[in-house]
Protein backbone atom coordinates (compact mmCIF):
# COMPACT_ATOMS: atom_id res chain seq x y z
CA UNK A 1 0.00 0.00 0.00
CA UNK A 2 1.32 3.43 -0.92
CA UNK A 3 2.14 5.90 1.83
CA UNK A 4 -0.65 8.33 0.79
CA UNK A 5 -3.22 5.54 0.77
CA UNK A 6 -2.08 4.32 4.17
CA UNK A 7 -2.33 7.86 5.51
CA UNK A 8 -5.90 8.24 4.22
CA UNK A 9 -6.97 4.92 5.73
CA UNK A 10 -5.45 5.79 9.12
CA UNK A 11 -7.03 9.24 9.23
CA UNK A 12 -10.41 7.87 8.11
CA UNK A 13 -10.30 5.13 10.72
CA UNK A 14 -9.42 7.68 13.40
CA UNK A 15 -12.40 9.83 12.44
CA UNK A 16 -14.78 6.86 12.53
CA UNK A 17 -13.33 5.83 15.89
CA UNK A 18 -14.07 9.27 17.35
CA UNK A 19 -17.67 9.12 16.11
CA UNK A 20 -18.09 5.59 17.48
CA UNK A 21 -16.67 6.61 20.86
CA UNK A 22 -19.08 9.55 21.11
CA UNK A 23 -22.03 7.43 20.01
CA UNK A 24 -21.40 4.56 22.38
CA UNK A 25 -20.41 6.50 25.48
CA UNK A 26 -18.03 5.32 28.20
CA UNK A 27 -16.83 1.75 28.32
CA UNK A 28 -17.72 -0.36 31.38
CA UNK A 29 -14.89 -1.14 33.75
CA UNK A 30 -14.58 -4.81 32.84
CA UNK A 31 -14.21 -3.97 29.18
CA UNK A 32 -11.67 -1.25 29.91
CA UNK A 33 -9.64 -3.72 31.96
CA UNK A 34 -9.93 -6.32 29.22
CA UNK A 35 -8.83 -3.87 26.53
CA UNK A 36 -5.88 -2.65 28.59
CA UNK A 37 -4.75 -6.18 29.41
CA UNK A 38 -5.15 -7.24 25.80
CA UNK A 39 -3.16 -4.22 24.65
CA UNK A 40 -0.40 -5.04 27.14
CA UNK A 41 -0.28 -8.67 26.00
CA UNK A 42 -0.18 -7.63 22.34
CA UNK A 43 2.50 -5.04 23.00
CA UNK A 44 4.63 -7.56 24.89
CA UNK A 45 4.16 -10.13 22.14
CA UNK A 46 5.06 -7.68 19.41
CA UNK A 47 8.04 -6.46 21.42
CA UNK A 48 9.30 -10.00 22.00
CA UNK A 49 8.84 -10.90 18.36
CA UNK A 50 10.60 -7.71 17.26
CA UNK A 51 13.48 -8.34 19.66
CA UNK A 52 13.95 -11.90 18.44
CA UNK A 53 13.58 -10.84 14.80
CA UNK A 54 16.19 -8.11 15.02
CA UNK A 55 18.65 -9.91 17.30
CA UNK A 56 18.59 -13.41 15.80
CA UNK A 57 21.54 -13.68 13.36
CA UNK A 58 20.70 -14.29 9.71
CA UNK A 59 22.50 -17.32 8.25
CA UNK A 60 23.40 -17.21 4.55
CA UNK A 61 24.80 -20.14 2.58
CA UNK A 62 27.82 -19.46 0.36
CA UNK A 63 29.19 -21.79 -2.32
CA UNK A 64 32.95 -21.82 -2.90
CA UNK A 65 35.40 -23.88 -4.89
CA UNK A 66 39.05 -23.82 -5.93
CA UNK A 67 41.64 -26.19 -7.30
CA UNK A 68 43.97 -25.92 -4.33
CA UNK A 69 41.23 -25.83 -1.66
CA UNK A 70 42.59 -22.61 -0.19
CA UNK A 71 39.51 -20.48 -0.89
CA UNK A 72 37.08 -22.67 1.12
CA UNK A 73 39.52 -22.54 4.07
CA UNK A 74 39.71 -18.76 3.90
CA UNK A 75 35.95 -18.29 3.68
CA UNK A 76 35.44 -20.83 6.50
CA UNK A 77 37.84 -18.84 8.68
CA UNK A 78 35.80 -15.73 7.98
CA UNK A 79 32.57 -17.58 8.81
CA UNK A 80 34.07 -18.72 12.11
CA UNK A 81 35.14 -15.19 12.92
CA UNK A 82 31.64 -13.82 12.20
CA UNK A 83 30.18 -16.34 14.65
CA UNK A 84 32.81 -15.49 17.26
CA UNK A 85 32.04 -11.76 17.24
CA UNK A 86 28.28 -12.44 17.17
CA UNK A 87 27.83 -10.68 13.84
CA UNK A 88 24.22 -10.11 12.69
CA UNK A 89 24.90 -12.22 9.59
CA UNK A 90 26.51 -15.67 9.61
CA UNK A 91 27.93 -17.73 6.75
CA UNK A 92 27.46 -21.42 6.09
CA UNK A 93 30.19 -22.55 3.68
CA UNK A 94 29.38 -25.14 1.02
CA UNK A 95 32.51 -26.45 -0.73
CA UNK A 96 31.63 -27.37 -4.32
CA UNK A 97 35.17 -28.28 -5.38
CA UNK A 98 35.48 -25.93 -8.36
CA UNK A 99 34.42 -22.41 -9.24
CA UNK A 100 32.21 -23.75 -12.04
CA UNK A 101 30.30 -26.11 -9.74
CA UNK A 102 29.95 -23.35 -7.12
CA UNK A 103 28.43 -20.97 -9.66
CA UNK A 104 26.12 -23.72 -10.96
CA UNK A 105 24.78 -24.20 -7.42
CA UNK A 106 24.29 -20.45 -7.13
CA UNK A 107 22.44 -20.24 -10.46
CA UNK A 108 20.21 -23.16 -9.40
CA UNK A 109 19.19 -21.33 -6.23
CA UNK A 110 20.82 -23.84 -3.88
CA UNK A 111 22.78 -21.13 -2.04
CA UNK A 112 22.40 -17.43 -1.25
CA UNK A 113 25.96 -16.41 -2.13
CA UNK A 114 28.89 -17.56 -4.22
CA UNK A 115 32.55 -16.64 -4.47
CA UNK A 116 33.04 -16.49 -8.21
CA UNK A 117 34.66 -14.78 -11.14
CA UNK A 118 32.89 -12.50 -13.55
CA UNK A 119 33.93 -14.63 -16.55
CA UNK A 120 32.51 -17.90 -15.23
CA UNK A 121 28.85 -18.91 -15.27
CA UNK A 122 25.64 -16.94 -15.76
CA UNK A 123 25.65 -13.81 -13.61
CA UNK A 124 22.41 -12.23 -14.86
CA UNK A 125 20.81 -12.42 -11.41
CA UNK A 126 24.03 -11.85 -9.45
CA UNK A 127 25.01 -8.68 -7.63
CA UNK A 128 28.42 -7.93 -6.11
CA UNK A 129 28.82 -7.63 -2.35
CA UNK A 130 32.62 -7.24 -2.17
CA UNK A 131 35.64 -7.99 -4.33
CA UNK A 132 37.34 -10.89 -2.56
CA UNK A 133 40.55 -10.75 -4.61
CA UNK A 134 41.96 -9.86 -8.01
CA UNK A 135 43.41 -12.72 -10.03
CA UNK A 136 45.97 -11.97 -12.73
CA UNK A 137 46.48 -13.76 -16.04
CA UNK A 138 50.11 -14.89 -16.33
CA UNK A 139 51.69 -16.63 -19.31
CA UNK A 140 54.89 -18.05 -17.85
CA UNK A 141 57.78 -19.60 -19.80
CA UNK A 142 60.53 -21.88 -18.41
CA UNK A 143 63.97 -20.50 -17.66
CA UNK A 144 66.03 -19.92 -20.82
CA UNK A 145 62.97 -19.79 -23.11
CA UNK A 146 63.25 -17.53 -26.17
CA UNK A 147 59.52 -16.72 -26.14
CA UNK A 148 59.06 -13.01 -25.46
CA UNK A 149 55.73 -12.11 -27.10
CA UNK A 150 52.52 -13.76 -28.25
CA UNK A 151 53.74 -14.21 -31.83
CA UNK A 152 56.61 -16.37 -30.56
CA UNK A 153 54.08 -18.97 -29.42
CA UNK A 154 53.34 -19.96 -33.02
CA UNK A 155 52.99 -23.72 -33.29
CA UNK A 156 53.59 -24.17 -29.54
CA UNK A 157 51.46 -25.80 -26.82
CA UNK A 158 50.38 -23.83 -23.75
CA UNK A 159 49.38 -25.62 -20.59
CA UNK A 160 46.30 -24.15 -18.89
CA UNK A 161 45.98 -24.61 -15.14
CA UNK A 162 42.31 -24.89 -14.23
CA UNK A 163 41.15 -26.06 -17.63
CA UNK A 164 37.52 -25.11 -18.26
CA UNK A 165 37.56 -22.49 -15.48
CA UNK A 166 39.89 -20.42 -17.68
CA UNK A 167 38.16 -21.29 -20.93
CA UNK A 168 36.91 -17.74 -21.41
CA UNK A 169 40.45 -16.37 -21.00
CA UNK A 170 41.70 -18.75 -23.68
CA UNK A 171 38.88 -17.75 -26.05
CA UNK A 172 39.63 -14.05 -25.53
CA UNK A 173 43.33 -14.56 -26.33
CA UNK A 174 42.54 -16.71 -29.37
CA UNK A 175 40.21 -14.10 -30.78
CA UNK A 176 42.48 -11.11 -30.20
CA UNK A 177 45.74 -12.71 -31.41
CA UNK A 178 44.25 -15.15 -33.94
CA UNK A 179 46.03 -17.99 -32.18
CA UNK A 180 44.13 -20.64 -34.12
CA UNK A 181 45.75 -19.30 -37.29
CA UNK A 182 49.13 -19.44 -35.51
CA UNK A 183 48.38 -23.07 -34.61
CA UNK A 184 48.79 -22.44 -30.89
CA UNK A 185 47.37 -25.34 -28.87
CA UNK A 186 45.99 -25.14 -25.33
CA UNK A 187 46.14 -28.14 -23.03
CA UNK A 188 44.14 -28.22 -19.76
CA UNK A 189 46.02 -29.68 -16.80
CA UNK A 190 46.32 -29.71 -13.05
CA UNK A 191 49.46 -28.42 -11.26
CA UNK A 192 51.00 -31.90 -10.87
CA UNK A 193 50.61 -32.59 -14.60
CA UNK A 194 51.99 -29.14 -15.43
CA UNK A 195 55.19 -29.85 -13.49
CA UNK A 196 55.72 -33.10 -15.38
CA UNK A 197 54.88 -31.54 -18.75
CA UNK A 198 57.34 -28.68 -18.17
CA UNK A 199 60.09 -31.11 -17.17
CA UNK A 200 59.41 -33.21 -20.31
CA UNK A 201 59.26 -30.05 -22.46
CA UNK A 202 55.77 -31.01 -23.65
CA UNK A 203 54.55 -27.42 -23.22
CA UNK A 204 56.27 -24.17 -24.13
CA UNK A 205 54.43 -21.99 -21.64
CA UNK A 206 52.00 -22.19 -18.77
CA UNK A 207 48.86 -20.05 -18.44
CA UNK A 208 47.67 -19.44 -14.88
CA UNK A 209 45.06 -17.12 -13.41
CA UNK A 210 45.86 -16.51 -9.75
CA UNK A 211 46.06 -13.87 -7.02
CA UNK A 212 49.40 -12.14 -6.81
CA UNK A 213 50.35 -13.17 -3.28
CA UNK A 214 53.54 -14.73 -2.00
CA UNK A 215 51.84 -18.08 -1.42
CA UNK A 216 50.61 -18.42 -5.00
CA UNK A 217 53.84 -17.01 -6.47
CA UNK A 218 55.75 -19.64 -4.50
CA UNK A 219 53.50 -22.39 -5.86
CA UNK A 220 54.02 -21.09 -9.40
CA UNK A 221 57.82 -21.06 -9.05
CA UNK A 222 57.73 -24.61 -7.67
CA UNK A 223 56.28 -25.91 -10.96
CA UNK A 224 59.45 -25.01 -12.86
CA UNK A 225 62.88 -26.54 -12.41
CA UNK A 226 65.48 -24.33 -10.71
CA UNK A 227 67.82 -22.65 -13.20
CA UNK A 228 70.23 -20.58 -11.15
CA UNK A 229 70.40 -17.01 -12.32
CA UNK A 230 68.14 -17.72 -15.27
CA UNK A 231 64.65 -16.88 -14.20
CA UNK A 232 61.17 -17.53 -15.43
CA UNK A 233 59.90 -15.58 -18.41
CA UNK A 234 56.59 -13.71 -18.72
CA UNK A 235 54.77 -13.08 -21.98
CA UNK A 236 52.99 -9.71 -22.00
CA UNK A 237 49.41 -9.34 -23.20
CA UNK A 238 49.84 -5.99 -24.91
CA UNK A 239 46.30 -6.02 -26.26
CA UNK A 240 44.81 -6.27 -22.75
CA UNK A 241 42.94 -2.97 -23.18
CA UNK A 242 41.31 -4.13 -26.41
CA UNK A 243 40.39 -7.48 -24.87
CA UNK A 244 38.85 -5.77 -21.83
CA UNK A 245 36.77 -3.54 -24.11
CA UNK A 246 35.21 -6.61 -25.76
CA UNK A 247 35.22 -9.05 -22.83
CA UNK A 248 34.08 -6.76 -20.02
CA UNK A 249 34.74 -9.34 -17.32
CA UNK A 250 38.44 -8.51 -17.65
CA UNK A 251 40.52 -5.45 -16.87
CA UNK A 252 43.82 -4.27 -18.27
CA UNK A 253 46.47 -4.48 -15.57
CA UNK A 254 50.14 -3.58 -15.23
CA UNK A 255 51.99 -6.25 -13.25
CA UNK A 256 54.58 -4.41 -11.11
CA UNK A 257 58.27 -4.81 -11.82
CA UNK A 258 59.95 -7.57 -9.82
CA UNK A 259 56.72 -9.40 -8.91
CA UNK A 260 58.10 -12.90 -9.57
CA UNK A 261 61.61 -12.14 -8.38
CA UNK A 262 63.26 -9.09 -6.93
CA UNK A 263 66.91 -9.42 -8.02
CA UNK A 264 67.34 -9.50 -10.89
CA UNK A 265 63.75 -8.37 -11.23
CA UNK A 266 61.16 -10.46 -13.04
CA UNK A 267 59.58 -8.86 -14.89
CA UNK A 268 62.24 -6.26 -15.47
CA UNK A 269 59.59 -3.60 -16.02
CA UNK A 270 55.85 -3.23 -15.49
CA UNK A 271 54.15 -5.89 -17.61
CA UNK A 272 50.76 -5.43 -19.31
CA UNK A 273 48.37 -8.29 -18.77
CA UNK A 274 44.76 -9.04 -17.79
CA UNK A 275 43.14 -9.02 -14.37
CA UNK A 276 40.00 -10.91 -13.34
CA UNK A 277 38.16 -9.80 -10.16
CA UNK A 278 36.80 -12.49 -7.86
CA UNK A 279 33.53 -11.40 -6.25
CA UNK A 280 31.37 -12.39 -3.38
CA UNK A 281 28.08 -12.48 -5.27
CA UNK A 282 24.53 -12.41 -3.93
CA UNK A 283 21.18 -12.90 -5.55
CA UNK A 284 19.73 -9.56 -6.58
CA UNK A 285 16.57 -10.48 -4.66
CA UNK A 286 18.47 -10.99 -1.39
CA UNK A 287 17.30 -8.60 1.34
CA UNK A 288 19.15 -5.25 1.28
CA UNK A 289 19.53 -5.14 5.07
CA UNK A 290 21.13 -8.59 5.14
CA UNK A 291 23.62 -7.63 2.42
CA UNK A 292 24.42 -4.33 4.17
CA UNK A 293 25.14 -6.17 7.42
CA UNK A 294 27.19 -8.78 5.54
CA UNK A 295 29.34 -6.19 3.75
CA UNK A 296 30.00 -4.37 7.02
CA UNK A 297 30.84 -7.58 8.89
CA UNK A 298 33.28 -8.70 6.19
CA UNK A 299 35.08 -5.37 6.07
CA UNK A 300 35.31 -5.36 9.88
CA UNK A 301 36.58 -8.93 10.27
CA UNK A 302 39.14 -8.97 7.44
CA UNK A 303 41.55 -6.95 9.61
CA UNK A 304 41.48 -9.69 12.24
CA UNK A 305 42.27 -12.45 9.73
CA UNK A 306 44.66 -10.82 7.29
CA UNK A 307 47.75 -12.01 9.19
CA UNK A 308 46.66 -15.65 8.87
CA UNK A 309 45.10 -15.27 5.42
CA UNK A 310 46.99 -12.52 3.53
CA UNK A 311 44.69 -12.79 0.53
CA UNK A 312 41.98 -11.06 2.58
CA UNK A 313 44.00 -7.85 2.28
CA UNK A 314 42.69 -7.68 -1.29
CA UNK A 315 39.06 -7.41 -0.20
CA UNK A 316 37.68 -4.14 -1.51
CA UNK A 317 34.48 -2.40 -2.57
CA UNK A 318 33.00 -3.31 -5.97
CA UNK A 319 32.45 -0.65 -8.60
CA UNK A 320 29.37 1.46 -7.96
CA UNK A 321 29.10 2.58 -11.60
CA UNK A 322 25.73 1.89 -13.18
CA UNK A 323 27.39 0.30 -16.21
CA UNK A 324 29.67 -1.99 -14.18
CA UNK A 325 29.96 -5.49 -15.62
CA UNK A 326 28.77 -6.96 -12.31
CA UNK A 327 26.42 -4.41 -10.70
CA UNK A 328 26.82 -3.82 -7.00
CA UNK A 329 24.01 -5.02 -4.73
CA UNK A 330 21.92 -2.09 -3.37
CA UNK A 331 22.58 -3.24 0.20
CA UNK A 332 26.35 -3.22 -0.37
CA UNK A 333 26.14 0.12 -2.18
CA UNK A 334 24.37 1.64 0.83
CA UNK A 335 27.20 0.51 3.11
CA UNK A 336 30.09 1.64 0.92
CA UNK A 337 28.38 4.97 0.11
CA UNK A 338 27.74 5.62 3.81
CA UNK A 339 24.00 5.73 3.16
CA UNK A 340 22.86 3.07 5.63
CA UNK A 341 19.41 3.94 6.91
CA UNK A 342 18.45 3.49 10.54
CA UNK A 343 15.42 1.51 11.59
CA UNK A 344 13.30 4.64 11.99
CA UNK A 345 14.54 6.05 8.67
CA UNK A 346 13.21 2.96 6.93
CA UNK A 347 10.07 2.28 8.93
CA UNK A 348 9.23 5.62 10.56
CA UNK A 349 6.23 6.36 8.33
CA UNK A 350 4.91 2.82 8.63
CA UNK A 351 5.22 2.91 12.41
CA UNK A 352 3.47 6.30 12.64
CA UNK A 353 0.55 5.48 10.39
CA UNK A 354 0.43 1.90 11.61
CA UNK A 355 0.07 3.08 15.21
CA UNK A 356 -2.71 5.45 14.14
CA UNK A 357 -4.45 2.65 12.32
CA UNK A 358 -4.01 0.21 15.21
CA UNK A 359 -5.32 2.73 17.72
CA UNK A 360 -8.29 3.52 15.52
CA UNK A 361 -9.11 -0.13 14.98
CA UNK A 362 -8.87 -0.73 18.73
CA UNK A 363 -11.31 2.11 19.40
CA UNK A 364 -13.66 0.82 16.72
CA UNK A 365 -13.54 -2.67 18.19
CA UNK A 366 -14.19 -1.40 21.70
CA UNK A 367 -17.05 0.78 20.48
CA UNK A 368 -18.62 -2.04 18.50
CA UNK A 369 -18.25 -4.40 21.45
CA UNK A 370 -19.96 -1.97 23.77
CA UNK A 371 -22.70 -1.29 21.23
CA UNK A 372 -23.42 -5.01 20.98
CA UNK A 373 -23.10 -5.72 24.71
CA UNK A 374 -24.14 -2.38 26.17
CA UNK A 375 -25.22 -2.50 29.79
CA UNK A 376 -26.84 0.31 31.81
CA UNK A 377 -24.33 2.33 33.74
CA UNK A 378 -24.43 1.66 37.52
CA UNK A 379 -24.97 5.39 38.09
CA UNK A 380 -27.87 5.35 35.65
CA UNK A 381 -29.43 2.42 37.56
CA UNK A 382 -29.35 4.45 40.79
CA UNK A 383 -31.15 7.36 39.12
CA UNK A 384 -33.60 4.96 37.52
CA UNK A 385 -34.39 3.42 40.90
CA UNK A 386 -34.93 6.86 42.40
CA UNK A 387 -37.19 7.90 39.55
CA UNK A 388 -39.13 4.65 39.83
CA UNK A 389 -39.91 5.45 43.48
CA UNK A 390 -41.91 8.49 42.42
CA UNK A 391 -44.78 6.31 41.22
CA UNK A 392 -44.67 4.28 44.44
CA UNK A 393 -44.79 7.49 46.53
CA UNK A 394 -47.89 8.68 44.70
CA UNK A 395 -49.69 5.43 45.59
CA UNK A 396 -48.43 5.13 49.19
CA UNK A 397 -51.36 4.21 51.45
CA UNK A 398 -50.01 5.18 54.89
CA UNK A 399 -47.16 6.68 56.87
CA UNK A 400 -45.23 3.39 57.43
CA UNK A 401 -45.06 2.83 53.69
CA UNK A 402 -43.80 6.39 53.17
CA UNK A 403 -41.16 5.89 55.88
CA UNK A 404 -40.03 2.69 54.14
CA UNK A 405 -39.69 4.59 50.86
CA UNK A 406 -37.55 7.20 52.62
CA UNK A 407 -35.26 4.46 53.92
CA UNK A 408 -34.89 3.09 50.38
CA UNK A 409 -33.94 6.55 49.17
CA UNK A 410 -31.39 6.85 51.96
CA UNK A 411 -29.80 3.49 51.08
CA UNK A 412 -29.49 4.46 47.42
CA UNK A 413 -27.97 7.80 48.37
CA UNK A 414 -25.55 6.18 50.86
CA UNK A 415 -24.28 3.85 48.14
CA UNK A 416 -23.80 6.63 45.59
CA UNK A 417 -22.13 8.92 48.17
CA UNK A 418 -19.58 6.17 48.88
CA UNK A 419 -18.83 5.95 45.16
CA UNK A 420 -18.48 9.71 44.91
CA UNK A 421 -16.11 9.73 47.89
CA UNK A 422 -13.98 7.03 46.18
CA UNK A 423 -14.05 9.01 42.94
CA UNK A 424 -15.54 5.98 41.24
CA UNK A 425 -16.04 6.69 37.54
CA UNK A 426 -19.30 4.69 37.64
CA UNK A 427 -20.89 6.95 40.29
CA UNK A 428 -23.90 9.01 39.28
CA UNK A 429 -23.53 12.75 38.87
CA UNK A 430 -24.16 14.60 42.18
CA UNK A 431 -26.25 17.22 40.40
CA UNK A 432 -28.54 14.58 38.93
CA UNK A 433 -28.91 12.88 42.30
CA UNK A 434 -29.72 16.24 43.93
CA UNK A 435 -32.50 16.99 41.48
CA UNK A 436 -33.95 13.50 41.83
CA UNK A 437 -33.81 13.76 45.65
CA UNK A 438 -35.54 17.17 45.78
CA UNK A 439 -38.27 15.87 43.51
CA UNK A 440 -38.84 12.83 45.70
CA UNK A 441 -38.87 15.02 48.88
CA UNK A 442 -41.53 17.19 47.32
CA UNK A 443 -43.61 14.18 46.31
CA UNK A 444 -43.30 12.72 49.81
CA UNK A 445 -44.38 15.99 51.37
CA UNK A 446 -47.36 16.21 49.03
CA UNK A 447 -48.36 12.61 49.75
CA UNK A 448 -48.16 13.17 53.52
CA UNK A 449 -50.29 16.25 53.16
CA UNK A 450 -52.79 14.27 51.13
CA UNK A 451 -52.88 11.57 53.82
CA UNK A 452 -53.31 14.20 56.51
CA UNK A 453 -49.79 13.76 57.90
CA UNK A 454 -46.87 16.18 58.38
CA UNK A 455 -46.21 18.23 55.23
CA UNK A 456 -42.46 18.59 55.70
CA UNK A 457 -39.59 16.45 56.87
CA UNK A 458 -36.05 17.33 57.85
CA UNK A 459 -33.61 15.92 55.24
CA UNK A 460 -31.68 12.92 56.46
CA UNK A 461 -27.90 12.85 56.81
CA UNK A 462 -27.24 11.24 53.45
CA UNK A 463 -29.16 13.94 51.65
CA UNK A 464 -27.30 16.68 53.56
CA UNK A 465 -24.02 15.04 52.60
CA UNK A 466 -25.22 14.91 48.99
CA UNK A 467 -25.68 18.67 49.02
CA UNK A 468 -22.16 19.08 50.39
CA UNK A 469 -20.77 16.75 47.68
CA UNK A 470 -22.61 18.74 45.05
CA UNK A 471 -21.02 22.02 46.18
CA UNK A 472 -17.55 20.50 46.71
UniProtKB/TrEMBL annotation:
Q: Does the keyword Transmembrane apply?
A: yes
Residues passing through the membrane, by range: 6-23, 30-51
Q: Which UniProt keywords apply?
A: Membrane, Transmembrane, Transmembrane helix
Q: Name one Pfam family in it.
A: NMT1_3
Bias-annotated ranges (Low complexity): 451-463
Looking up InterPro entries in the UniProt record yields: TRAP_TAXI (IPR011852)
Where do the record's region annotations for Disordered lie? 451-472
Q: Which PANTHER family match?
A: SLL1037 PROTEIN
| Official protein name in the record | C4-dicarboxylate ABC transporter substrate-binding protein
Amino acid sequence: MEQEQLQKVAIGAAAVAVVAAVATGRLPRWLRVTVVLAAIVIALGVGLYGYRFFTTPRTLTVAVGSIDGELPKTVSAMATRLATINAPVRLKVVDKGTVIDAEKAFAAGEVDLVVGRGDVGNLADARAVVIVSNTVVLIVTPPGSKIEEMADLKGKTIGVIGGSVNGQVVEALKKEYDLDHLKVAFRPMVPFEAKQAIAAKQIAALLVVMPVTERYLGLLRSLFPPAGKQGLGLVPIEAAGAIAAVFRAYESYDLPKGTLRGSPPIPDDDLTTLRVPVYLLAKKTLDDDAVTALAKSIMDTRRDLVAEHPILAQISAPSTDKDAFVPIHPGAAAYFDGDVKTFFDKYGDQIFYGSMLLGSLTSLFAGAWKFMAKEPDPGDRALARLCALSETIETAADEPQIADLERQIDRILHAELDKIARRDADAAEPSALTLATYRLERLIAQRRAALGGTATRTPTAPRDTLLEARHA
